[in-house]
Design a protein that fits this description.
The protein is α/β, with parallel strands linked by helices and about 190 residues long. Helices cover about 40% and strands about 15% of the residues. The protein has seven helices and seven strands; from the N terminus they run H-E-H-E-E-E-H-H-E-H-E-H-E-H. Strands 1-2-3-4 form a four-stranded mixed sheet, sandwiched between helices. Strands 5-6-7 form a three-stranded parallel sheet, covered by helices on one side. Helix 1 packs parallel to helix 7 and helix 4 packs across helix 5. It is globular, with a radius of gyration of 17 Å.
């Protein structure tokens, strides 16, 4: 059984993200995992905004913040988690406070002033972010969104159907990013 605390970014992902930070206006991580988990794994990229628990937590400009609406639910969620029995399993149900915040809303905020945004996703919750980019393109013909599905056994065809591009596995993402970084450097060099 996989220990969730032992999960790390695939080899090369942090380095390629660091390369991107130097070339584009904004790079951010949006995850279902807590901000503390992300801070530990992306400590070499302190300038990169991190959004944990689908955006309920954030780490921006060196400060950890909890969404003000979500903070009000923290005692109820803690009590519920303590009272609930815990069982290991492949398929899980997540309990979230009744706060309208998801990966799509965070993407909308992060790319509000951008003309192009790329989003890489490997989880069904990433569909919200893909849909946000699609809606932004519909409303703003000058905006280009690129939706990249990272294949794995759990997302199946649903996420791929919403994507512009598919990467075969998480381990293939660093090489894909390397190619993207090379292309951007070539485009930006005189």
């Amino acid at each position: 059984m996989l220990d969730p605390a032992a999960v790390r970014p695939v080899a090369g992902a942090v380095e390629r993200s660091a390369d991107l930070v130097t070339l584009v206006a904004r790079v951010a991580i949006i995850s279902a995992r807590p901000v503390e988990f992300l801070q530990e794994r992306f400590a070499n990229l302190p300038e990169m905004p991190l959004y944990g628990l689908y955006g309920l937590q954030s780490y921006v400009d060196g400060e950890v913040r909890i969404d003000h609406e979500a903070a009000a639910w923290e005692p109820v969620m803690s009590d519920t988690a303590r009272a609930a029995g815990r069982q290991a399993g492949r398929m899980v149900v997540e309990l979230k406070p009744p706060v309208r915040l998801d990966k799509g809303i965070i993407v909308a905020r992060e790319c509000a002033e951008l003309t192009t945004a790329w989003y890489f996703g490997d989880d069904i919750s990433d569909a919200k972010a893909f849909e946000t980019l699609t809606e932004r393109e519909r409303l703003d013909p000058a905006f280009t969104g690129v939706r990249v599905a990272v294949a794995n056994g759990e997302t199946g065809a649903r996420l791929a159907a919403l994507a512009d591009l598919c990467v075969d596995a998480p381990e293939a993402v660093p090489e894909f990013l390397y190619s993207l970084v090379r292309a951007l450097r070539d485009q930006l060099s005189p």
